[in-house]
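The freezer alarm interrupted the setup, so I double-checked each line after restarting. Inputs confirmed:
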Amino acid sequence: MLVVFVVLALLPQYNHGYTVTLLTDILRYAILTLAWMIFSGPTNYMSLATAAFYGIGFYIAAIANGPVPFAVAIIIAGLVSFVVALLVGALTLRLRGVYFCIFTFALTLLIQNVVLEVERVVTHTRGRFVEAETTEVAYYAMFIVAIFTIAMAVLIRRSRYGLALQSIGEHEEAAAHSGINVVRTKVLVFAASAMPMAMAGAIIATQRTYIDPGIAFSLQSSFLPVLMALFGGMSNLVGPIIGAAVFTYIGELLLTEFPDLYMLIFGVVLILAILFMPNGIVGLAQTVWTKIRGSRRSAAEGGRRAPA
Amino acid sequence: MHLLEGEGVTRHFGGLAAVSDVDFYVDQGEILGLIGPNGAGKTTLFNLISAALKPKPGKITFNGRDITPLPAYQICRLGIARTFQTVKIFPHVPVVRNVMVGALFGTGRRTSSAEARKKAEEALEFVDMLTLKNTVAGDLTLAQQKRLEVARALASDPKLLLLDELMAGLTKPEVTEALGDIAELRSRGITIIMIEHVMQAIMAASDRIIVLDYGKKIAEGTPAEVAANPKVIEVYLGEECDA
Amino acid sequence: MAAVRDIIITGLLLGGIFALVSVGLSLQYGVGRVLNVAHGEFIMIGAFVTFWLFSSINLNPIVSIVITAPLIFVIGWLLHATLFRRLMHNAPNLDVFEGQSMLAAFGLLYVAQNIARIIWGSQTYQVNYMNTTVTGAQIPLNRLVALAVVIVVGVAFYLFLARTRMGKAIRSSAQDPTTAGLMGVDINSVLAICFGLGLAMAGIAGSLISFVYPIQTSMGLQYTVIAMIVVVLGGLGSITGAMIGGVILGIVSQLVTHFQPTWTMIAYYVVFVVLLLARPKGIMGK
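Predicted 3D structure, all chains:
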């Protein structure tokens, strides 16, 4: 684990351009996926608001980066996103199951439309320019936010909040009657998990130069983390990171090889992945592993006694 | 002053009165039995006390404090713990962590994780399930899941325990054992309100019994008084005729 | 006064279209538990097939419903019989299935939208059909015709649900899938038919939209969102709720459009948020 950190930390010294950009991208999706999983994993509240918070990061970067240092802009993005998520959470977290899911889905589009309208009325433009940062700076910023996200995920998991969240996911009513302040727990963790999303958005925005609401609040950013988490498996924190890495890499390959068909192929891959690997690669690996072990064991035991 | 007291507690579902203008109280150290035919409003009354539902209208006080507006988690932290008629556990979580939820969040005090684990193990010991502490709760039998709920409730240091059909489906020896446990809880100073269909059990265990029918309180008194009450006899005989 | 009348008539039309789309989504979720985020893409397909038939063989767009509806029904039936049925059988519980089927539908959204984009590009089209105003009103004739079609389809669907054996099976499946199974109905075929019917509704709406509003290959998502809002407003799985919700949203939409067209989408969400918070189980919910 430590080796991976060191390698990732030193990488830009030896390798430039494409690899660094790709790694930044992988880290971005790892952050979004982990952050999504902090809340939605244990509680089973499927949030599709990731793109909303991620997009807020874009706009904070567009407004604040330049007037204030990059690091401050990133922190502001996290804080603004925290506050917005706090408000949204307080309003909506009494909705359950698919209602919550639909609401968060609509929320992303609502914020997109509001921003579009505000820009039209106030600035009379569709998009904005963002003060650019170098790929190396973006990479290191993303790396630090990734560590922040992992730390947050681990700390919440291990703390009393982790057990509280899991209890809420398994039986919300029983959790409340056992003394858990269900609303506060959900809202706080939801808001905390929105911070890294916006921070990642603020960093990526500096690599885009031009942004508009369609780019910033693209629904892909809501669905991809869910997909990557499912694909990587949700039982631990490493799975989603692997899921993010694999999917981002495949996405990059497709994008460079078949730029016109990229989205189409992406859709097909998504459907096939869910159809044939519903438990993710970790799940798949486990199934294969048990099969191998099972056949070995039965081969070894076959000579001694009949299978039970 | 009574430990828990309800005045004019009422709750309608649609046009139907599930609980209608019920006055009740329970004193410190008492065991109060709650009986009545199916659909009489017993579980609804538990839901009203534990704030799963709000009485409309009605007022409930605990230790002299009006707890009607409080949310469920605060009721639990004040010292009213409950079990459920249909078990509500955390099925994918190990038994000991199920119980730790009560100890960590339900006591109203800041509890360290180590302290919570110790408390959880004590509570599991009480319900004779310490050996199962690392089992995933969903793998337990139904009877064990009910006892797990009791342990989780106990871990939150309740002053008042609401037991909803704890003995349903238990064998005779198990009922006897459960009665012993209830007596033991009382000797620890825990007040109990229990809903039960096993008549011998509730008659033996309770100091006082309240009978509900169609959401109304139709009788109240010692087990002997209630058993002799003509209204109660009519309700129960009537039910038997239906069945 | 004329403005009020126009708002009401156009609002009813739009509401009728929303109702069709939403009833379709409600069938898919209420019965099949598939939150089909690709629902709007089939409106787009309906609209573009109609456009294509109109521009190539000059087929009357209303007549083309006879082609689009069955075509999209078959697509939906096949999708359910292959993709969603398999997901349902493999999923350990309903929650997992809901999550997975929604992601699969998201994949479908990409597939449908991008195939359409490859064929038709990203331009805006419109079928120029009966685009004359009726004497004394500002309403184009085609809107009145579309409204009539919506009403006919709505009534036909209502009769189908109320009178036929399959309709009864669908209604009982919506309430409780196990009972439907006990009634001797093949639940798999009910689910596939519901999914197909749901999409066919979207297809019909698409055919109508193609000659009333401009169409683009990216138009689907906005209708999906509207349908979701309507379905939540009406209560998930409630067909009547979806119809009422659709009409309400249509009229709200026209009111807002009359004063400030760019606020329409925002108005939808405001209605949605307010109603959802006031009545979390929908206007028909208990």
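Quick read of the result. Chain C has one domain: 2-278.
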